[in-house]
Specification:
Bound molecules: S-adenosylmethionine
Shape: globular
CATH topology of the largest domain: Rossmann fold
Radius of gyration: 29 Å
CATH superfamily of the largest domain: Vaccinia Virus protein VP39
CATH class of the largest domain: Alpha Beta
Strand content: 25-35%
CATH architecture of the largest domain: 3-Layer(aba) Sandwich
Length: about 525
């Protein structure tokens, strides 16, 4: 399965996912908070839905979330776990009315406190609220769990894990040993026998390596000024997600984050070689997550698909051929071939097992139909005969458009040989829309004291659906693809100080449907600026 980033309401999307398929669900839903986090996030529609949704108070919120958690329970494997992230606004209600009800009190495992130090504000009459709560429940009494060790336990002594070694520095046995390890007990007895006395404190040194992680996690929040910050008000630190993923999942496990936001969970899942599905109803969240994943992409990253509501022809046309074939087969609900095309040119199978061929071109002609017909027969002769007899299609051919010759040939095969071939245009599988337009102006604001040019870049996007945001890559290299330093810019205006040199800058605009266009600017900066 390919990793997926999906735009939409998670309730609707989760309903389409198969039962008992997921190892871990982490969710960080919008809090029941008057600070209206979400308002910062989204478009007009979101603001409206936010106000409607919570105007009924806590009952409304609990009802809304419970429906979703119910669906999550169905999706988890019997050995799966859920981590629900919330805070004082609603944690008591969530535990009692949602998690205990759906997962059962007996499957409650932990209440984790994420304690963070940040600016307190002017709190004078009570204590500053500086923690979030994460509830950990399992679906049954069997689950994956790896004991983690606290990496920030300075000053605490706990002989749970140690490196015992002799005073002269020789290692006695392996390091990182659990306290009760029988190898150590054997060693100890041998030492006593050989030395004919009990060891004095200095004879054997116990170096404490760490203690098992407990339920209070001290982790710094994402610093608003740091480079990790991607522009999301509710972005969670990667360290927090690492602890969760490392403790209850293994490499290759499937993780779902139905409120993916700025994409912390899936970015960490990618680094830790877990498979993942991320869902968010905000275009901004999906696109920021997509760009974040591009930025951290390396040789070992797994590919992922982004499911939007609309697509544009140009992007589809210029996708890598194999990526496109795989993607469109999946969008049709089929299973793509895992390898590049075989001799027959079959790219995958439908849910019912029919062969699918994808042609990434327009005006498909007669010969393609004839070749496909024989490919289907050679692919699986029995299936071919069975479908032919039953009057069912023998295969599905997908293309941008079909020419007159192809349509006539399909009709001829049906009438003369009783063979049905199903023709599907790409736009019957995924809705197609026009991508946004973009233009960029560059304005010289003068020279600063260091001799750097101050330059204002203004990107203007145009789209019928409205513009969502812009991202900027200040050092664009075509071979690396678009890797923006600025992921989320609502206005499209940036001021940079550039020293004399040549620059290639790329700016991408995203519209409200998630469609995008990129403009590349080549600049030469010396005495003045010159756009090439
Ligand atoms: C608190 S944020 C998640 C932040 C994320 N954990 C991170 O580290 O960046 C909540 C997210 O839930 C999304 N959301 C709210 N209601 C949703 C729904 N019904 N379906 C999908 N996403 C939703 C919002 O758009 C927002 O991105």
């Amino acid at each position: 399965m390919e990793n997926e980033l999906i735009l939409g309401d998670n309730l609707e999307i989760m309903r389409k996912l198969p039962s008992e398929s997921i190892d871990l669900i982490y969710l960080d839903p919008p809090f029941f908070s008057n600070r209206n986090y979400e308002v910062i996030w989204g478009d007009e529609g979101e603001i409206r839905s936010f106000k409607d949704r919570w105007s009924g108070g806590i009952e409304h919120y609990i009802g809304w979330l419970k429906e979703r958690v119910q669906e999550m329970h169905r999706l988890l494997k019997p050995t799966g776990s859920i981590f629900l992230h919330c805070d004082w606004h609603a944690d008591a209600y969530i535990r009692v009315y949602i998690l205990d009800k759906i997962f059962g009190e007996k499957n409650f495992r932990n209440e984790i406190i994420w304690h963070y130090k940040s600016f307190h504000g002017n709190v004078k009459t009570y204590f500053a609220k500086k923690h979030d709560t994460i509830f950990f429940y399992t679906k049954s009494n069997k689950w994956t769990f790896h004991r983690l060790f606290d990496d920030d336990n300075e000053g605490t002594i706990d002989f749970e894990r140690w490196n015992p070694y002799l005073v002269d520095g020789t290692k006695i046995l392996g390091s990182n040993m659990p306290m009760q390890d029988s190898r150590f007990t054997r060693f100890y007895r041998r030492w006593v026998k050989e030395n004919k006395r009990l060891p004095k404190p200095d004879d054997i040194v116990y170096e404490v390596v760490g203690q098992a992680l407990d339920t209070v996690w001290d982790i710094k929040p994402v610093d608003p000024k740091s480079g990790d910050r991607i522009g999301y008000p509710t972005q969670k630190p990667e360290k927090l997600m690492e602890k969760i993923l490392n403790s209850v999942t293994n490499e290759g496990d499937l993780i779902l984050d139905p409120f993916v936001g700025g994409g912390t969970t899936v970015a960490v899942a990618d680094k830790l070689k877990r498979q993942w599905i991320g869902i968010d109803q905000s275009v901004q969240a999906v696109k920021v997550t997509e760009m974040r994943l591009y930025n951290q992409r390396d040789l070992f990253s797994s590919p992922f698909t982004v499911k939007l509501h609309k697509y544009d022809y140009d992007t589809l046309r210029y996708k890598d051929a194999f990526d496109f074939e795989t993607w469109i087969v999946e969008q049709h609900g089929g299973t793509p071939n895992s390898k590049q095309r075989g001799d027959l040119g079959i790219d995958g199978r439908t849910r019912e097992g029919l062969p699918i061929q994808v042609k990434r071109s327009d005006n498909i002609g007669r010969n393609v139909i004839d070749n496909f017909r024989s490919a289907c027969e050679r692919f699986d002769a029995n299936l071919f005969e069975r479908n032919k007899k039953a009057g069912q299609p023998i295969g599905v051919l997908i293309a941008f458009t079909f020419g007159k010759g192809a349509i006539e040939e399909v009709a001829r095969l049906k009438i003369q040989q009783g063979i049905t071939i199903k023709l599907l245009q790409v736009e019957e599988i995924v809705p197609i829309a026009k991508k946004p337009k973009i233009s960029v102006t560059v304005k010289d604001l003068g020279v600063d004291e260091k001799g750097h040019r101050e330059i204002e870049f203004t990107a203007i996007g145009e789209s019928d659906s409205g513009i969502e945001m812009y991202s900027w890559d200040w050092d664009y290299k075509e071979t690396n693809g678009f890797k923006p330093e600025i992921l989320l810019d609502k206005e499209g205006v940036q001021v940079r100080r550039l020293k004399p040199d040549a620059y290639i800058i790329a700016v991408r605009v995203f519209d409200n449907q998630g469609l995008e266009s990129t403009e590349v600017i080549r600049l030469k900066v010396n005495g003045k600026i010159k756009r090439l």
